[in-house]
C-alpha cells in the first residue's frame, strides 16, 4: 500500500480532530454516524461535514451509506493518526521507502532527528481475512469489538511487548523503540531475510544458532509459531536476528507441541533444501548433551525444560495482558464466533451520543500544529513540533 506522507502537509488541526473523532466513534461503531462524529469533534466553528469531505478526498476515511450515513477510518487514516502521534512525541521526523510487505503488515524506514534510520511496522491484522471478519461483525457487543482497528492495535502491542521482553533476555531481536495504535517502531535490522540467501559460509553454524534460538525460546516458555526463513534476518557476518512476534504463544498453549514441531520442521526443511544439509550427524556431533533432541536429529518438545510464566509476568508489565492474548489468539486461530443477533446499532448510537458528552477531546492533546512533510523524505520540521 502506498503511504503518501505528503498528504500530511495538507491536513489541518480540524482535520485531525475529526479523524480522531471517527477513531473514537469506531470503538462502538463499525461505521460511525456523521452526526456522532460532529458531536464528538465539536469543532469551534462547525464545518465537520466539510472536513469529512476533505478527509474522504485524501482517502483517510471511507464513506458508507448502506445502513445510515456514516464513515470509518481507512488504514491510511489510522496510519496518519499513529504517525502524527509519534512525530509529535519526537520518535521520528521522516518516513522513507517501504522495506517490507508482510501478510499482515507494511514496513517502512523512518528516521529520527539525528538521521538514525529505524523500521516502522504498520500492522494490518485482518487484511487477509477482513471480509470474513466483517461478515461476522458484532461478535462482541461491547467496547472492544473485533474490528481490524482493534486487532491491529493488539498485534502491535503484543509485538512490542514480546520484542522488549525477548531483548531483555538476550535474544537476537530488533530493539523495541516505541508503539502507538497499530504501529511499532524498532531498530532497523541490517541484512536480509534468510529466504533471499543462496549461499552461506557456515550453514551448519547458522543452522545450529537458529535451532538454538528455538530451544532457548521454549526454555523461556515461548514458541514463535512463524519461525521460518521469512522471519529470520541474516547479515554479512551471518549474524541472526529474529523478527515478527504477534503470533507467539506460551508453551502451555494446548497446541504448543504442534506449533513447536512446525517451527522446527520449517527450519529443517529449509536447510535441507537450500543448503543440501543432512542433520543427524551435524546435530549430534556438535552437541554433547542430547537433551531436547530425538535420535532422528529432530527436537523433542517434551524433553525441553520449559519455564512457562515468562509470558504472563513480563508481558503484562508492557501492558499486554491475558485478555489481550486471548483476544488476539482467538482471531489468529480463526475461532472468532459469529453473533448475528447482537447487531443493535440504534442502542449503540444512543449509548454513544450519551458517551460523547463525556468525551473530552481536548484531553487527547491534539497538537495545534500540522505535520509538514517536505516531499517524501522529511515529514516535518522537528523544531516546529515542540508543543506536542
Ligand atoms: P509480517 O508479520 O507481515 O510477516 P514482518 O515483521 O515479518 O511482517 O516483516 C516483513 C518484512 O519486512 C520482513 O521479511 C523484512 O524483510 C522486513 N522487516 C521487518 N522488520 C524489519 C526490521 N526491523 N529491519 C529491517 N527489515 C525488517
Ligand atoms: Mg513475517
UniProtKB/TrEMBL annotation:
Residues 64-284 form the RIO kinase domain. It holds the Pfam family RIO1. Belongs to the protein kinase superfamily. RIO-type Ser/Thr kinase family. Its cofactor is Mg(2+). It comes from Medicago truncatula (Barrel medic). The keyword ATP-binding applies. It catalyses: L-seryl-[protein] + ATP = O-phospho-L-seryl-[protein] + ADP + H(+); L-threonyl-[protein] + ATP = O-phospho-L-threonyl-[protein] + ADP + H(+). Signal peptide: none annotated. GO terms for molecular function: ATP binding; metal ion binding; protein serine/threonine kinase activity. Keywords: ATP-binding, Kinase, Magnesium, Metal-binding, Nucleotide-binding, Serine/threonine-protein kinase, Transferase. It is an enzyme of class 2 (transferase). InterPro entries: Kinase-like_dom_sf (IPR011009), Rio2 (IPR030484), RIO2_wHTH_N (IPR015285), RIO_dom (IPR018934), RIO_kinase (IPR000687), WH-like_DNA-bd_sf (IPR036388), WH_DNA-bd_sf (IPR036390). This is Serine/threonine-protein kinase RIO2. Its EC number is 2.7.11.1. The keyword Transmembrane does not apply.
